[in-house]
Amino acid sequence: MNIIQVMQKQAKKAGARTIAIITIVPILFVALSLYGVNVFLKISDEKLQYEDALKAANMAKGFNDYIEEVELVVETAAEGIEYLTSVDATYDEIHGYLTEKSQEMPDLLNDYIDGIYGYINGEYNDGYDWIPYEGYDPRERIWYQEAVSAGGKIVLVEPYVDARTNNLIVTVTKALKNGEDVIAADIDLSGLQKLTMDIADQINDHDVIVMDKDGWIIASSKDGEVGRKISEDESQERRAFYSNWKASNGNTFFTDIGGKRYLISQQEIGYGWTAFTLSDVGVMYRSLAVFAIIGVIGIVLLTALIIIIIILMARRRLKAEDDNDSLGAVAKIFTTLHKIDLDENTFQQLQCHDYKVSKSIGEERTDASKTFKRALGEAIERRYLDEVMEFADLETLNSRMGNKDSISMEFLNYEHLWFRGRFIVVDRHADGSLKTVLWSTELIDEEKRFRDQMQFLAETDQLTGINNRGSGEKKIRQLLGLGKGGMFMLFDVDKFKSINDTYGHEAGDKVLIAIADCMKRSFRDRDIVLRLGGDEFAAYVPYVFSRQEGEPIVNRFIESVKKIDLPEIEGRKINISIGVSFFRNEDTYTFDELYKKADSRTYESKKIEGCFATYNTDFL
Known about the structure:
The structure is a single chain. Helix content is 47%, strand content 23%. The chain is α+β, with helices and mostly antiparallel strands and 620 residues long. The protein is extended, with a radius of gyration of 36 Å. The termini are far apart.
């Protein structure tokens, strides 16, 4: 009797039920194993693609930081030129400003931008002394024409390869408010290329490409790619890359390059540029292939099959728990969160961790406008109550929000903590009017106080503790713009260089600090005192319009300076030369003219030995 006959005999003995079990169970195991392997591969594939997308997002942040530095350079220069042209500055004054801004380039860009240039007041001007060739007309250049066409927005001119350096160049350009003057800067993109190579080194087994919307490769970790326009390239693979990208709608996609399959992740950065990470699919999915083999082997192993199923179920459960934890973490940001139906004037409380608000609202869910005003009345610090009530008025919310998706304001609550209140659009009617909004409050006390501290540091001279030049002049200009006249006093320390040379710079710093302390004691809180730089100081005293009114104030300050006695300068007396000018409420001249009047009087005071003040003789 052969083996087949033996099996047939045993099967008949076992009966139909046993045969069914023996047949069905293996099939069921195979089906479950294949399903488990398929789910595992899908999750792993999604995880790999998510990690690549995250790398692309982190990479894009580095490029955005670089681009924001460029924007800041051009924006700052444009603001300065706007001011200079408004005060009819000369060509040389504008040239001096452009030279200064070109020399102050941030470290990140210093090696990659020659300087700032532009077409200003009908002629070419720059900060690095390039001499235009005969017949050169900036208005015929693409950087000028695109800036004017953009209507005041910063634009990037299409990249080109510099014939001298063989480096890729783009021009950042911006038209000023008059629509005729333009500021620009040429960026050698080798800086961006270096950043690209550094990022590629940080994310192993990936290549990095930066490309503009038209297919120009701006930077690449792959050799020979920079400067190509792949949308028109002779290579079918490069054109396919471009076509696949345009059809991807911002998602990851696959493409073939050099005979290999690549997974492409992307992230938008400024000016229509996009950063790509390229992952070799063969390398990327090698580990998944190993797991697939293990899954096939597991088909014949019941124990392995059960373990795989348990692992998959556990991973799904953990993912769900992680998602719930993430949603809970986001919800913790908000102290209160309410969904408001503006049509019905009702609301739904989604979250409320503020005891006073919760107690005031109680169980009410109707008459949202009245209920929220009552709750806010008990939760807001008195100084901010009127402003917050106006902001939280549901009847005017539609007109105030317009097409915006969110509006916010900051205020102090009853515990003197800073909060941010925000309306967020949930749903609109067909005509665009609001239907449903979220009202949220968020504790921002630490953030707000940090911002205030940073603003204080930005406006304060770090040596003396009084206003620095930028903040002090800004405050004075604001008062003059409001027609609030007063006395402007400008002074410096006589022979201050001699003090530094004789006693050292530390002693010189002590002198400057002592003078600033005298200013703090001699002037009122509403007066503006500032250090202009070096040993030059200024003060503005509102509502003092004549020498008769101002002289006691100036003399009080001079007497305070005369009493300075510092061991570091061995009893040497400090002398200052003061120039004083006045701005009456009806005057219309600028701060710069007020400054010049005082400056000229300062030079007159220097002719007199000791502390002395000279007053503007226009009127006393």
